[in-house]
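User: For a benchmark we're assembling, each entry needs the component sequences followed by a predicted structure for the full assembly. Here are entry 17's components. Please fill in the structure.
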Amino acid sequence: MSIFSFFGKQRTAPAARERLQVLLAHERVSSGSDLVSLLREEILAVIARHVEVDNDRVRVTMDRDEHMSVLEIDVEIPLGAAVRAA
Amino acid sequence: MGKVIVVTSGKGGVGKTTSSAALGAALAQRNEKVVVVDFDVGLRNLDLVMGAERRVVYDLINVIQGDAKLSQALIRDKRLETLFLLPASQTRDKDNLTAEGVERVINDLKRHFDWIICDSPAGIERGATLAMRHADVAVVVTNPEVSSVRDSDRIIGLLDAKTAKAERGERMEKHLLLTRYDANRAERGDMLKVDDVLEILSIPLLGIVPESTDVLRASNIGAPVTLADSRCAPAMAYFDAARRLAGEELPVVIPGEKRGIFGKIFGRRAAA
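Assistant: Structure for entry 17:
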């Protein structure tokens, strides 16, 4: 409970900010760009040539910033996954 | 060659047309030659906001289809010699807005004007994508409100993917114009603050236009707000935004913020 509740209504702007941050992080990946889904497919194909990975265990996200964007690739490789030696 | 600016937002009613008219007039008040182009085919309003609704003879679609020359469709502002309007069609189907036609008209305008301001329709359909298609610079108009910020985020994604500049592999220059801002409500925590919106959208700030009755008063009489009352707070904000568009660097002031304890002039990084 914040001290503002003593004076009446809660501040609502922080909620707006938080909801937007969560929503947009999601939307930028899912609908935002075809690039991300294309990269995801191709990265998955490359990894699958060498290691057995689960489709759902590869996450590709793009974080946009004013000066640059960060592409984050998160691949979970299960213990004991069959490694296809090159 | 003129510079093409698209004024866009995704969401309707946030102030695209008001901002197009005000920025266009503000640039023309600097003696630069400006044309404001209405892309909202079927629902034109720029003519009304600029007070030229009774002078429309030909429109953008007529020019695209070759039924009128560009010079016949352009309407010169009665108050500013260097300000012109190219109206949208009220009756025609928006399918008549073709990519090739728009490109031809924009290229023609670039030869005759210093600034071509494209007033985008709301949404992300054909009219909106064609309005941004040939832009050199985008002005993203946003209200400090969740649905507007979300739609602006979508539009920023489109600007980076679907414009001619993006397809050539170049970086689209994008600027945030925050409109209907109420510093007191933001200070009380009931409205997103400037920094919140900047952090979420991550594009540089072009200006902050305060919520004001002067904007409605200006549209009532059919004058861009910078012409209706050049000394009111929203007009000052648009003049500053126009100066930044023209390349000047000046600090962004949050309008309407209380002086004294809360009075702050931010040395925030403005549009470069």
